[in-house]
Amino acid sequence: MTNHAHAIVWIDHREARIFHFNRIESEKLVVRPHNPTTHIHHKANSVGSGHASEDQAYFHAVTQAIKDAQFILIVGPAGAKTELVKHVHRHDPAVVEKIVGIETVDHPSDGALVDHGRRYFKAADLMTPQMS
């Protein structure tokens, strides 16, 4: 994969779509959990929270896919994006410093996602030296 300065990650509990990009080109990578979770509904008088545990192997694979980017934007529709950030804080502090934003974004197309990332980073490109 070409070493682009920017990465945007759209993540939920079923997949992470990762784009490394610059002004002109982008490269896509999809990471899926080994055992995707399904919706779990809590029933009255039952033991447990009704929530599946975090898939650390999945979050580790996503972190490995974005660790070489200089600037990272993490987006998604629900809690997986914050779970990913928590995982990065606990297991890969060097990547934490590269995360420049976390946003709630529904289910955009790949093109819309890359366009969102380019718009988001446009100001940063003007103010920050880029990796060669």
Largest beta-sheet characterization: 5 strands, mixed
Distance from N terminus to C terminus (CA atoms, Å) equals 15 Å
What is the mean pLDDT?
86
Number of strands: 5
Portion of residues in beta strands equals 15-25%
Architecture per CATH nomenclature, i.e. the level-2 architecture: 2-Layer Sandwich
Could you name the CATH class? Alpha Beta
Would you identify the CATH H-level superfamily? eRF1 domain 2
- Strand order, sheet with most strands: 3-2-1-4-5
Structural class designation = alpha/beta
**Whole-number radius of gyration?**
16 Å
What percent of the residues sit in helical stretches (DSSP H or I)?
Answer: 25-40%
Number of helices: 4
Shape: globular
Low-confidence stretches: none
Q: What does the model show?
A:
The protein is α/β, with parallel strands linked by helices and 132 residues long. It has a single domain (6-34, 53-127), classed as Nucleotidyltransferase, domain 5 (2-Layer Sandwich). Helices cover 34% and strands 23% of the residues. It contains four helices and five strands. It has helices at 56-66, 80-91, 93-96, 110-127; strands at 6-11, 16-21, 26-31, 71-76, 99-104. The chain has a five-stranded mixed beta sheet with strand order 3-2-1-4-5, with helices on both faces. A hairpin with a 4-residue loop joins strand 2 (16-21) and strand 3. The radius of gyration is 16 Å and the shape is globular. The two termini are 15 Å apart. 25% of the residues are buried. The model has no long low-confidence stretch (mean pLDDT 86).
What does the secondary structure layout of this molecule look like, with pairings?
Layout: E1 6-11, E2 16-21, E3 26-31, H1 56-66, E4 71-76, H2 80-91, H3 93-96, E5 99-104, H4 110-127
Parallel strand pairs: 1-4, 4-5
Antiparallel strand pairs: 1-2, 2-3
Helix pairs in contact: 1-2
